[in-house]
Amino acid sequence: MSAAPLEIEDLVAGYGRVSVLNGLSMKAGPDGNVGLFGPNGHGKTTLLRTVSGLVRPRAGRIRFFGEDITPLSPRAIVERGLIHVPQGNRLFPDLSIAECLALGAWTKRARAGEKENRERAAAIFPRLAERWRQPVRTLSGGERQMVSIATGLMGAPRLLLLDEPTLGLSPKLKEELAAAVRAISEAGVPLIVVDEDVELLLGLASHLFLINHGAVGAEIRPGETIGHDAIMAMYFGH
Ligand SMILES: Nc1ncnc2c1ncn2[C@@H]1O[C@H](COP(=O)(O)OP(=O)(O)OP(=O)(O)O)[C@@H](O)[C@H]1O
């Protein structure tokens, strides 16, 4: 049996004296995309940052397609194709869309497929293809979010982590972005998506985890259906 894209065992991590992840374990990806949701401040972003090597875990193990990546640097993790698109589209404002995307293809394996990945990004985000030379500071929030995700795609992901890709967007743009994210998944890239909109997550992922107090509080497995009241009960713990 082939290894899951991501397996996390008893992960403990935090900042200074504060512990944020408290023995979190999950297996993500063998049954399709994964969605992460839960109350604010309970560790979803910290989990993605720890998986991508930006936060050093104090204990636990992270395996990427079977390989133990726990001790690796963020650079070595990106080189393996584990790509993290952080919250809040942090882009260089004076670069054009084309220049931002080129920066995303800095690893050896990404450079090898740069042309195909650029074409794939342009097909998924036609709005960007129309504005290729425009500086990103002149783009709308939704368009900047598209550039962030497209830049992640340029890294030739074998697994793509998306942190709140639809944060602050209008319902119409949210749907446009969700459709693009579905297209990325249909092109064969497994996803782990953090979003507060559980309905949106259910449209993107078949396996959802509620992150509560730095651990997995509940799980919605592939094939299980869940009503609005049950989701609220998960959030509020009754
Ligand atoms: N760089 C940091 N230094 C110190 N504490 C931090 C840092 N980043 C996050 N925290 C703290 O870690 C906790 C978890 O934050 P995290 O961003 O992981 O939660 P989250 O579930 O992603 O929340 P949100 O949905 O609001 O983004 C919070 O209490 C936060 O204040």
UniProtKB/TrEMBL annotation:
Positions in coiled-coil regions: none
PROSITE patterns: ABC_TRANSPORTER_1 (PS00211), ABC_TRANSPORTER_2 (PS50893)
InterPro entries recorded: AAA+_ATPase (IPR003593), ABC_transporter-like_ATP-bd (IPR003439), ABC_transporter-like_CS (IPR017871), BCAA_Transport_ATP-bd_LivF (IPR052156), P-loop_NTPase (IPR027417)
Domain of life (superkingdom): Bacteria
All copies of domain ABC transporter, residue ranges: 6-238
Keywords: Amino-acid transport, ATP-binding, Nucleotide-binding, Transport
Entry GO MF terms: ATP binding; ATP hydrolysis activity; branched-chain amino acid transmembrane transporter activity
Pfam families cross-referenced by the UniProt entry: ABC_tran
One of the GO BP terms on file: L-amino acid transport
Keyword Nucleotide-binding recorded: yes
PANTHER family in alphabetical order: HIGH-AFFINITY BRANCHED-CHAIN AMINO ACID TRANSPORT ATP-BINDING PROTEIN LIVF
Family recorded in the similarity comment: Belongs to the ABC transporter superfamily.
Protein name: ABC transporter ATP-binding protein
Biological source species: Aureimonas endophytica
